[in-house]
């Protein structure tokens, strides 16, 4: 796939102590965000539902709603792609430990929330989404695949697509196979290249040779290496005003490299 152009209408991040678009842009410019910059909890779920929902849901829905707000979109409107490498690691750890020690004590609610598409399911209900919603996983390449999948949706229609990439920190024995120290989520609302009111216009090309070093400053680059969902930070850095660079390369562990370039109009 070569030369797929698209517009970015909204963006948000949460994690690494950098939550919200303005905090990310400040960090990208070398500034230190304020002490309290957490995104507000999603308004799409009631307080009771938020208390009962797992960490992946609270994390991903907050950034998804913030990106839609920035794009001036009703959350029900865009199609959506939710991409996560490992799903809810907190519940996975709980279920493995409970099944090994006292399986009769397994919580039906936590079992219900253990499925990989729990976050996208909560979004479809809370946002009353009308369009197609997909949940995908490609281990450490989930952010790259999620972005590619979202851009391909624009072939069918130039109408907005919401991309949400998220993963939790690992704990207990899972840390041996998934050594993420911090939870992270990022969201983009994209649309066809001629959409009005775009924050930026980008082009996606596949089949590229792996490019140069990360375009992120040292602090953010280290954070992006910690959690594979953080690979989307380089794309966000192209959307910032001013952008951190003219292009970046997403280097998946499997499959062709993906180059994202900012289009100057």
Structure notes:
The protein has 265 residues and is an alpha+beta fold. It has a single domain, classed as Thiolase/Chalcone synthase (Peroxisomal Thiolase, Chain A, domain 1), CATH 3.40.47.10. The protein has an 8-stranded mixed β-sheet, with helices on both faces. It starts with a strand and ends with a strand. The relative contact order is 0.21.
Question: Which SSEs are present, and which pair or pack?
Answer:
Blueprint: E1 4-15, H1 21-28, H2 47-52, H3 55-70, E2 79-83, H4 89-101, H5 108-112, H6 118-126, E3 133-136, H7 142-156, E4 161-167, E5 184-191, E6 200-208, H8 218-226, H9 232-239, E7 247-250, E8 257-262
Parallel strand pairs: 2-3, 2-4
Antiparallel strand pairs: 1-5, 1-6, 4-5, 6-8, 7-8
Helix pairs in contact: 3-6
Produce a short descriptive summary:
With about 260 residues, the chain is α+β, with helices and mostly antiparallel strands.
CATH superfamily: Thiolase/Chalcone synthase
Global Rg: 18 Å
What shape does the CA trace take? Answer: globular
Taken as a percent bin, the fraction of beta residues is 15-25%
> Which strand order do you get reading across the main beta sheet?
3-2-4-5-1-6-8-7
CATH class categorisation = Alpha Beta
Q: Which architecture name does CATH use?
A: 3-Layer(aba) Sandwich
Number of strands: 8
Helical/strand content category: alpha+beta
Tell me the domain tally.
1
Mean pLDDT: 89
Count of helical segments? 9
Largest sheet: 8 strands, mixed
Named CATH topology: Peroxisomal Thiolase, Chain A, domain 1
Order of helices and strands: EHHHEHHHEHEEEHHEE
């Amino acid at each position: 796939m070569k030369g797929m152009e698209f517009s970015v209408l909204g963006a948000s991040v949460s994690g690494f102590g950098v939550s919200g678009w303005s905090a990310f842009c400040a960090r990208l410019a070398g500034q230190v965000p304020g002490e309290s910059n957490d995104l507000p909890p999603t308004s799409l779920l009631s307080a009771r539902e938020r208390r009962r929902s797992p960490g992946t849901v609270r994390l991903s829905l907050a950034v998804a709603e913030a990106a839609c707000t920035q794009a001036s979109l009703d959350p029900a409107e865009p199609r959506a792609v939710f991409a996560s490498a490992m799903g809810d690691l907190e519940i996975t750890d709980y279920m493995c430990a409970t099944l090994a020690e006292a399986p009769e004590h397994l919580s039906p609610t936590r079992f219900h929330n253990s499925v990989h598409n729990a976050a996208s399911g909560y979004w479809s209900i809370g946002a009353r989404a009308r369009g197609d919603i997909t949940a995908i996983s490609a281990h450490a390449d989930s952010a790259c695949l999620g972005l590619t999948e979202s851009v391909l949706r624009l072939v069918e229609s130039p109408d907005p697509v919401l991309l949400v990439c998220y993963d939790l920190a690992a704990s207990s024995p899972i840390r041996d196979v998934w050594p993420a120290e911090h939870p992270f989520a990022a969201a983009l609302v994209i649309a066809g290249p001629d959409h009005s009111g775009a924050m930026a216009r980008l082009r996606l090309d596949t089949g590229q040779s792996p490019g140069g070093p990360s375009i992120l400053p040292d602090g953010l680059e280290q954070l992006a290496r910690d959690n594979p969902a953080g690979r989307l930070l380089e794309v966000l850095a192209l959307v910032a005003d001013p952008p951190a660079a003219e292009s970046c390369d997403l280097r998946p562990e499997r499959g062709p490299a993906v180059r994202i370039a900012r289009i100057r109009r």
